[in-house]
Amino acid sequence: MREAAAAAAPNPERTPEPPALEVTEAFQHVAGHAVLNGVSLTVQQGEGVLLIGRNGASKSLLMRLVLGLDLPSAGHRRRC
């Protein structure tokens, strides 16, 4: 059992994988109102994310930014 645990331990010499998706300090304004205010998100390859919130919380707008359908007013996104 110890051998399996040792094999699964992270290798300090291995370079970490870049994130599959990164949104940094994203701001979005709609009709003069800030609807996203400095949102940051990092998702690693193979990682699942659940986005929940009340109606009107701008979940769909965040997803549009992630997919590249809209551009943020400020900040940036990067997909690898």
SSE pattern = HEEHE
Query: How is the biggest beta sheet arranged?
Result: 3 strands, antiparallel
Helix/strand/pairing category:
alpha+beta
Arithmetic mean pLDDT: 84
CATH names the topology as Rossmann fold
CATH architecture: 3-Layer(aba) Sandwich
| CATH homologous superfamily descriptor | P-loop containing nucleotide triphosphate hydrolases
What percentage of residues falls in helices of 4 or more residues? 10-25%
Radius of gyration: 17 Å
**What general form does the structure show?**
elongated
Instruction: Indicate the low-confidence ranges by residue numbers.
Output: none
Q: What is the count of structural domains?
A: 1
Overall description:
The chain has 80 residues and is an alpha+beta fold. It has a single domain, classed as Rossmann fold (3-Layer(aba) Sandwich), CATH 3.40.50. Helices cover 20% and strands 34% of the residues. The chain is built from 2 helices and 3 strands, in the order αββαβ. The protein has helices spanning 2-8, 59-67, and strands at 21-30, 33-43, 74-79. The chain has a 3-stranded antiparallel sheet with strand order 2-1-3, with helices on one face. Strand 1 and strand 2 (33-43) form a beta hairpin. The longest helix has 9 residues, at 59-67. The chain is elongated and about 50 Å long. The mean pLDDT is 84. This is ABC transporter domain-containing protein. Keywords: ATP-binding, Nucleotide-binding.
Describe the structure concisely for a colleague:
The chain is of the alpha+beta class and 80 residues long. The chain has helices at 2-8, 59-67, and strands at 21-30, 33-43, 74-79. It has a single domain (17-79), classed as Rossmann fold (3-Layer(aba) Sandwich), CATH 3.40.50.
